[in-house]
Amino acid sequence: MITIMLTEEYLVPIFQRDILRHIHAKMTLRDAARATCASHAFRHNWICRPNLTFSLGTLGLNRNASRDVITRDLISKIDLIMQNHSGIGVKTLDIDLYSCDNIDFAYLDSWLRIAVTPGIEELILTLPLPSIVFENALPIISVYNFPCSLLSNGSGNSIQYLNLCYCTLRPTAGLGCLRSLTRLHMSCTRITGDELWCLLSNSPALVCLKLLHCEEIISLKIPSLLQRLRFLEVAYCDRLQVVESNAPNLTTFYFAGFLGQISLGGSLQLKTLRMICFRQTNIVCYARQNLLSIAPNVETLTISSLNEMVNTPMLSSKFLHLKLLQISLVGMAFSRAYDYLSLVSFVDASPCLENFVLAISQHRMGHASILGEPSHDLRQIPQQRHAKLKSVTITGFCSAKSLVELTCHILENTTSLDCLTLDTTCHPSCAVTKFDKCHPLMDGDSLVEAQKALLAIRRYVLGKVPSMVKLNILEPCSRCHAVESLVSTAKLS
Question: Phi and psi at residue 180, in whole multiples of 5°?
């Protein structure tokens, strides 16, 4: 048996190399490249650098140059670095080519073959917008086809985060198990619902799934084997018709786009739900009627709707765990028939509600104003006491009669209220945004309505506010709209 005695003199250089390697890995790409000129040790570390992040910023390129120059310089610098890299020990590869034009995809294939090896943990690939090329005088959309075979050679065992933007992904049954993949993000990626099912079925450790603008997905189905999936975001996949999740432990679901058929398997773990549907109306009504079957234990609910036309129905069903309710109603002008007071259906159905936020954004107020109405004409709804509601915020508060009635109903039936905020502006003021001027869409009509809203607050709301409730009234910025305010006041008088 041979025994090797390591002396202190021998150990010191080893420790020094480890320290230098750690320091070099923590440097930015530009600083690390410069350091290679000063030290042989750094030069050795450079070809084994574990974290490779390539973009205009990290490579110090001129963002104001023409796209042709950007493409030439970015490709040449990345290629020089990659061809001199050993390919050993790469943990992160992040390539941002969004600012480029007409990329030769052979470069990408070469870089990925060098870096995507067993041991890689993060792969982020952001490509340019698809370009049109001509073959045999016929236009063809040129999109990079990500080589799934790279994930079948053992790299799939180590990769934890995969983020693809503007490319094509065609996984097959031979992909193999991506046993370490916890985060999968795809934006503007060409992949069908069946191909995505294949990918998900081989990703048992997945925790977070984000799909944005994936136009080829018509039916999204998530297998029950994804026991660890907690977060699901599906946004603006225009052809999507069905979302069916059987992941039993999903806690957060964000959806944006055209609402079709949604089934979450009655997930009892779902606590946070956000729905943004600007391409169809009546989403608030849909949510009141259907969300209990989708997410019976939801605690935070956000709904954004465009031009809501149908009043929210009064139902006996209850959101027993809902604590935060945010409703955003966006449109040029809502239907005069829409009744803000019908939102009481949501508030009254939530006995544990603590925070209610209503955001109204409309270019002109289409509802009947309460000004001129005798106070005894305000409608009353059978009382439903709220013992946990502490904060109510209404932005874009206007003089619509039904909105004033909603505000008064909450004040009269909430014993736990601490704070009521009524914001008469539709857009943040300069005091909030830190800009020199308030939002330009705060035009003359908006200012006139803001003055009416302030008058409605003084006349109908102020007297109903209990002494223990803090009332915050936000009005247009006096510095930016001093002249306009005088004009508005003149019109009101």
Answer: -105, -5
Per-residue burial over 277-288, b if 16 or more Cβ lie within 10 Å, else e, is bbeebbbbbbbb
Round to whole Å and give the CA distance between 189 and 216. Answer: 8
Beta strands (DSSP E) in 369-426 are: 391-395, 419-423
Query: Residue holding tokens 């120059």?
Result: 69
pLDDT tens digit sequence for 239-296: 999 999 999 999 999 999 988 899 998 678 999 999 998 777 788 888 999 999 899 9
Q: What angle do CA 306, 308, 314 make, to 5 degrees?
A: 140
Taking the C-alpha atoms of residue 2 and residue 241, their distance in angstroms, rounded to an integer, is 70
pLDDT at site 142: 72
Q: DSSP string of 141-208?
A: EE-EE--GGGGGTTGGGT--EEEEESEE----GGG---TT--EEEEES-B--HHHHHHHHHT-TT--E
What is the C-alpha separation between 54 and 189, in angstroms, rounded? Answer: 20
Q: What is the DSSP string of 61-109?
A: --TTS-HHHHHHHHHHHHHHHHHTS---S--EEEEE-TT--S--HHHHH
pLDDT-flagged residues of the chain (< 70): 1-48, 131-141, 153, 266, 331-337, 362-366, 373-376, 383, 426-444, 478-493
23 three-class SS? helix
Residues constituting the chain: 493
Tens of pLDDT, residue by residue over 2-38, are: 444 443 334 435 445 455 455 545 555 555 555 554 4
- The gap between the terminal CA atoms of the chain, to the nearest Å, is 104
Sequence spans of domains, the chain: 271-369+381-427+442-477
Token representation of residue 266: 């009655």
Q: Are 402 and 451 in contact (CB under 8 A)?
A: no
* Assigned token pair, 155: 């790299």
pTM (2 d.p.): 0.85
Q: What is the pLDDT of residues 412-463, one digit of tens each?
A: 999 999 999 999 986 655 555 555 555 555 566 778 888 899 999 999 999 9
Angle at 204 between CA 201 and CA 207, to 5 degrees: 115
Q: Which helix (H) or strand (E) holds 285?
A: helix 283-294
Q: What is the DSSP letter of 377?
A: G
